[in-house]
Amino acid sequence: MKKKGQLEIGITMMVILVFLLLLIISLIVYFKFSYSEIRETNDIILEEKFSTLVNAITSMPEIKCSVKNAEKECLDAKKLVAFKHALDDNEMREYYIEEFGVKGIKIEIVYPPSMTSNGCNYGTYEASNDCGYYELFPVGSNELRYSTPVSIYYPDKNMYKIGKLTLSSNL
Prior knowledge:
The chain is of the alpha+beta class and about 170 residues long.
């Protein structure tokens, strides 16, 4: 009798062990799928947020170009330089960082290639009208980045160049 009871207890323990193993494996698989789904949703939300930020930034009157009081879908190079100069004021810089929630905004000239790789400020723009990039806020190295093409208008030369607007954030 004693051996039969020990055998049934052993069988019961094995069934419980198998059940627990199946439960643990199924929970691991479930959480893996849930985690990948959450990552995909997060990527979609970030894409939408950055897209909205790009629309908001490119439509700012501070940097948007206009020709004869008609707004165009481009950024004005002269306004970008003036806006960067205005951002030297810490209070204004903090306002825009809080408003947009981004850490970095940089516009690089892509085509035609710039003769220099220098950033633009009052001196370099007035001297040559040829800058490699406009960095409104410094772009960090280990942050999330979102880039999109933009058109940059140079009112002094009445010409357009193609640029790349890069936003960075640690959202």
